[in-house]
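Task: complex structure prediction.
Instruction: return structure tokens for all chains below.
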Amino acid sequence: MIGRLNHIAIAVPDLAAATALYRDTLGGDVSEPQTLPEHGVTVVFVNLPNTKVELLEPLGEGSPIAKYLDSNPSGGMHHVCYEVDDIIAARDRLSEQGARVLGDGEPKIGAHGKPVLFLHPKDFNGTLVELEQV
Amino acid sequence: MIGRLNHIAIAVPDLAAATALYRDTLGGDVSEPQTLPEHGVTVVFVNLPNTKVELLEPLGEGSPIAKYLDSNPSGGMHHVCYEVDDIIAARDRLSEQGARVLGDGEPKIGAHGKPVLFLHPKDFNGTLVELEQV
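Output:
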């Protein structure tokens, strides 16, 4: 069912500093920042040959990333995103197997303009899993 | 400098249960377990079309994963591994930029039989970074 690793996401307290780190120290190819107010984040992508790293900084009130940074002030690995062909079929299969889908269980439109769902980290060894239909 | 994302590693308290989760619930292609006594881990790889997820269970006394699981009993994202062409050149560049290399700074042979180094998570937004020469 799961296909490509679409991205890994890293929460960071200072997006400009993190972008400079990935660009200058690690020599990565970084995007311009994109503000996504409906997700409460500003995002920079580090484009690798086979996948992406998504650097996430909180944006606005109630950002889910702000809560994460309260517990992890210097940042950390926030989630992984796997691609699926059919997000509704994936959701139904996961629910049948007892995995919990976050929110109301309906896909939302994610950072790439495609339907996404998040799965409860307690059901996946402490790892927040995003599924994206591609 | 950084090339492909070679893998993301997830520490798990029960490798058999995690393997079943990734195989049966997420529908991933999982490897047989491999014991790596010199690294203090037993590993299962989830082979995705573009990269791998490495599931890590502690093996033996003093496993670095055991310490991680003490703080994160249900598991969690442990590290990310980027490929580099020349690990010595990468190390020297990183050191010049102020990033700390763990251990004695000399590459060790990793799970794939290739030279690896780990970078201090405090220098990379709370993310433990492995570099592997390919």
